[in-house]
Write a structure and sequence with these properties.
With 366 residues, the protein is mainly β. The protein is built from 1 helix and 29 strands. It has one domain: 7 Propeller (Methylamine Dehydrogenase, Chain H). The strands form 8 sheets. A 4-stranded antiparallel β-sheet has the order 3-4-5-6, with no helix packed on it. A 4-stranded antiparallel β-sheet has the order 7-8-9-10, with no helix packed on it. Strands 11-12-13-14 form a 4-stranded antiparallel β-sheet, with no helix packed on it.
Length: 366
């Protein structure tokens, strides 16, 4: 499972624009690198208590998806939650099972994929058919040894899913209805990598607390472990094979119950990792995106000392600087963000509580 969760479970944690052809509000032309933006809250459909959105993806300004869970009771899972943006508003859709959805990815042609698991632990791979989510068959479907953690897409209908099967493979590839588990990386891993990213050059990256590996279409390259004490990683951006960013958190050694995590931001050259000081230090960084050229762009974050607004980071060309979301009357915990293709826009999603409590509801900003 991905480590981006309610914070307590971890620790045990655009304004006016052009009108689109579909009648919704579209974003203006892309801005130059490093230009500041004003984030806005966007209404989310009603959801059962203890709800959160864990992932978001967009095909363009008029079509996007967000997924997560609702109705959770402590460690007991509730129901998978899925929303779709139609260019005007977010609407509920039905994944069709109890459990959660952890990841969603979109393609420019309007296709989308989501992965999660039901309350029995059985993995689910869903495809968007233009109106609803449909179950997809794949090798190992329904078996206890198969886990699906995250999904990403590429051009011409290619899809990759990080997970793990009974043979130790951690990457599932799909194209035109055919699904194949690729060979396992040389580094031993007993858990599924909970993160995945496709770089502009076509490399597929998988990562977790102990493994960062790159599949170039023919072979694996395993990078040094990013390490950390009770650490988790929430996002990866490979600008190039020797220019890689990792976001996350680290609880460190000891501490009282309820101790918040520390922000973790790493920059790698493919051979080692360097810690980079972020504009705030207590909380977590929960996702990173690049711009249309693959350069560093935005990071979403949760600031422990200022919880009523999201703390985004913006790359100004030389360093990461603060950028704040709107002030809310509830806590704001953004779990991730996504760039909207063909625009200067973003979607960021999360929840209104740092624990799976009755007050937790979906939170959406752009």
């Amino acid at each position: 499972m991905r480590r981006r969760r309610f914070i307590s479970g971890l620790g045990a944690v655009a304004g006016a624009g052009l009108v689109s052809a579909r009648g919704g509000t579209a974003w203006a032309a892309p801005r130059p690198l490093g230009e500041a933006r004003e984030w806005q809250a966007v209404p989310a459909p009603a959801a059962a208590p203890a709800a959160q959105l864990r992932a978001v993806a967009a095909s363009g300004p008029g079509l996007a998806w967000a997924v997560g869970e609702e109705g959770r009771s402590g460690s007991i899972r509730g129901k998978a939650l899925a929303l779709v943006w139609d260019g005007t508003a977010w609407q509920r859709t039905s994944p069709g099972f109890n459990g959660y959805l952890a990841s969603v990815a979109a393609a420019s042609d309007g296709a989308a994929w989501a992965v999660g698991a039901d309350t029995s632990g059985t993995a689910h791979l869903l495809a968007w058919d233009g109106r609803a989510w449909q179950e997809t068959d794949y090798p190992g479907r329904g078996t206890a040894e198969t886990t699906l953690a995250a999904v990403t897409t590429g051009p011409r209908g290619h899809v990759w899913v990080s997970g793990r099967n009974s043979d130790g493979s951690v990457l599932l590839h799909g194209h035109r209805g055919k699904w194949t588990w690729l060979e396992a990386p040389p580094a031993a891993t007993t858990t599924p990598p909970y993160g995945i990213h496709r770089s502009l050059c076509g490399d597929i990256w998988v990562y977790d607390t102990a493994l960062v590996a790159r599949w170039d279409g023919a072979a694996w390259t395993v990078l040094p472990s990013p390490g950390g004490i009770r650490a988790g990683f929430t996002g990866l951006l490979p600008v190039a094979r020797d220019d890689i960013w990792l976001t996350g958190y680290d609880y460190g050694i000891g501490g009282p119950p309820g101790k918040p995590p520390g922000v973790r931001l790493l920059h790698g050259d493919g051979a080692s990792w360097e810690h980079v000081k972020a504009p705030f230090g207590v909380g977590m960084l929960s996702g990173i995106v690049g711009d249309a050229q693959g350069r560093p762009d935005r990071i979403a974050g949760w600031d422990f000392w200022d919880q009523t607004r999201a703390h985004y980071l913006r790359w100004d060309g030389t360093a990461w600087v603060s950028e704040r979301g709107p002030v809310a009357t509830t806590p704001v915990v953004m779990n991730t963000l996504a760039k909207v293709p063909g625009s200067d826009g973003y979607w960021a999603v999360g929840t209104t509580s740092s624990s799976p409590s009755e007050t937790a509801r979906p939170r959406i900003e752009r």
